[in-house]
What does this fold into?
Amino acid sequence: MLKIGITGGIGSGKTTVCQIFKTLQIPIFFADDEAKNIVHHNQHVQEQIIALLGEEAFIDGIYNKPFVASKVFNDKYLLQQLNAIIHPAVFQATVDFFNQHKKEAYVLYEAAIMLESGSYRMLDKIIVVTAPENIRIQRVMQRDGINEDMIKARIANQMPEAEKLKYADFVINNDGKQSLIEQVLATHHAILKLT
Ligand code: ATP
It folds into this structure.
């Protein structure tokens, strides 16, 4: 079973591309969703977050994301410590997912910051989804209803697109001109040839 990473900057279209892979019955692990799930439901993780950031991190048991984000946004050390709490739990869930799907030809692991975090090292091949920055900004503005400056700030926090592409074994160009379905099918067949 090959472990294939799929990544790309904010609004590049990772989720959209994964939806197409899903129609091919490829199992997909959504690392960012899993991290959210763990923060919301894993009591041990919640206790550690409270010890790090204080009781305000949860209100009536519900994750207080604005508070946590405000604490860690400009404090790299705190962010590192928060990640050190969440990442091992996500990693364990990832290992469980890989073990559950050992008999598949390949599985996908989707994460926005796998290159920045280093988690790409556990994967056999990497797919990078890419789109021009102005298109990404337009799509995220429409999807999330947030302004251009907020999106640009998030983009500035991520690895530049050109740098990401250096890690790519496969590139899916989501510029709205080239067919996504055809590119996914071509990538799917290329991966199957490796198995
Ligand atoms: P994020 O990192 O922010 O989660 P993402 O990389 O998962 O983003 P998507 O959510 O797949 O990106 O795409 C961003 C938005 O753009 C979505 O609303 C999606 O429906 C839309 N979108 C993606 N690809 C296309 C396309 N080829 N044509 C039109 N809209 C698209």
